[in-house]
Amino acid sequence: MCLAIPGKVEEITIEGDLRVGRVNFGGVVKRVCLDYVPEVEVGDYTIVHVGFALSKIDEETALKTLEDFRAMGMLEEELASEEEAFARAAARPQSNCPDGSCSTERQ
Amino acid sequence: MKYLTEFRNGEIAQRMAREIAAVTTRPWKIMEVCGGQTHSIIKNGIDQMLPAGIEMIHGPGCPVCVTPLELIDKALVIAAQPGVIFCSFGDMLRVPGTEGDLFHVKGKGGDVRVVYSPLDAVELAVKHPDKQVVFFGVGFETTAPANAMSVHVAKRRGLSNFSLLVSHVLVPPAISAILSAPGQKIDGFLLAGHVCSVMGYWEYPPLAAKYKVPLVVTGFEPLDLLDGIRRTVIQLEAGRHEVENAYERIVRFEGNQGAQKLLAEVFEVTDRAWRGIGVIPRSGWRLSEAYREFDAEERFQISGIHTEESPLCHSGDVLRGVIKPAECAAFGEECTPRHPLGATMVSNEGACAAYYNYGRFISAEELAGVKSS
Hints:
The complex is a heterodimer. Chain A has a single domain (about 5-90), classed as SH3 type barrels. Helices cover about 25% and strands about 35% of the residues of chain A. Chain A has helices at about 60-70, 75-80, 80-90; strands at about 5-15, 20-25, 30-35, 45-50, 50-55. In chain A, strands 3-2-1-4-5 form a five-stranded antiparallel sheet. Chain A starts with a strand and ends in a 16-residue tail after the last helix. Chain B is an alpha/beta fold. The two termini of chain B are about 20 Å apart. Chains A and B meet through β3, β5, α1 and α3 of A and α2, α4, α7, α8 and α10 of B.
């Protein structure tokens, strides 16, 4: 749940009182608030948690991390659309720890 | 199972594991604080690569697992009210309260939605001025900047139909609580990398000095974790207890100061109950006076809801390494993975559930026997 995913900022717009970026996470694009990373420009990579950019990172780190998180199956969960996320959560059995971050059984 | 490290970075990982083995002369217990790190350790078989005697203890770092039953019950009551749009991250949807879960509330006609970001909930409030939009804000310091911004934006825009049901928990007081317990046995900690990307690690040197434990800021990828463990063991073997940053490419000492500034404005420190562990003083955030009007607990007048947790649970002692899961009277009786009483049984990788499911959490001596057999 506390995972921040690296993505590339493709476009920055001002939406009312917020600085909002279109951020591409290896193919999935999300709207992300950039207010906490004023130094980030178009073309930069940043790590993002629940729609908020938290820290700028270099491209090499970003790409390697994305690849590792994908291999660990951590991306689908974080980047699902709202409908997917709801369907995914609803399909699970009732559980006190449904979050993939800690409920991983050894396969 | 095939671990990921068997086909990714396998060689470097094996070399780092050998390096750890080479410097290890005696058993050490190391706790990784964050649930994301636990996931990666298990998924990549990191714990299986370590020398016998280096034991990874899974910390209380899953925010869902440590959320008290009482807060879930409050969420269910609010979500069931007519005229409410109740927004949450997906992971809270099937967490059981005393009766049912958010998914059941939706099935009975409640408007329960999963959102990607708390700002999406603010937008729903703008779009539906006739509804009360509530966001369920649970999490550690990593999630707090998002929730802080949502309520800050709601205030700036004068939204009277947005509120937060908020229960933030903090890493440093949890580490203090674990280390200050009599008989605790944790020798060192891997600090949660993404928590530190927000908060930096300036809060930790006093903890390392007071309790004489190494604290190493660590990432989530297999090599990051092995590096964090390696640096912790090197410090322990040398008798050092410092704060070290093994995640320099993401984490700076001072953290994200813009985020910390807004957090200080929107939240204030408060006592928080951790499921199965009990109340830890000054271990969480609640909305500050200036933002109290956005507190869902006040808006919906649910502060009268009190849910008692089972007095049988000794999660806290298990977390501190004081007792083994099987030494708890409720273990396997009143408390099982299907009907967990506390945080360490709630999470499948919590010490109790893991002990129950795989019998993996055994003593270092036994572990040595298992590994050599």
